[in-house]
Amino acid sequence: MTLGRYVCAARYFLGFSGLNPLLKDLAANYFTSQAVRAAAGWMQCTLETHGGPHAEMLCDNRPGVALWVRWTDHPTELVWLRDCPVADTDPSGTGDACSLFVEHPGGHTWEITDPELELIRAVEPTLTKPYDKGSSDPS
Q: In total, how many domains does the chain have?
């Protein structure tokens, strides 16, 4: 995570009615169709803040590639893109591979911050901590 570099977070609603023609154009198999339908709803761009086209991964049920939804305002497209081959090799890094696509714009996933994800990570320990019903202080 690098402070000052953030995910784009542009949002787009991809409902079932919009998915069916895209899946037909893609000639998606049953398993891909099911995975994509399960992901229907609000899409959030996972690239570093940028100008146009936005993207979010829908499923990665094939080795080395993933199915991404890309949009500006309209039209939307589903496209198979190869996985980004870069991994975090910094000695103090995680060693994780980038979870974006090859030649994506902006930073790799470990170089950018998703403020919503960071908020969830910060709050999560308090949500899973046992609560003493006899105490008025949940901390």
A: 1
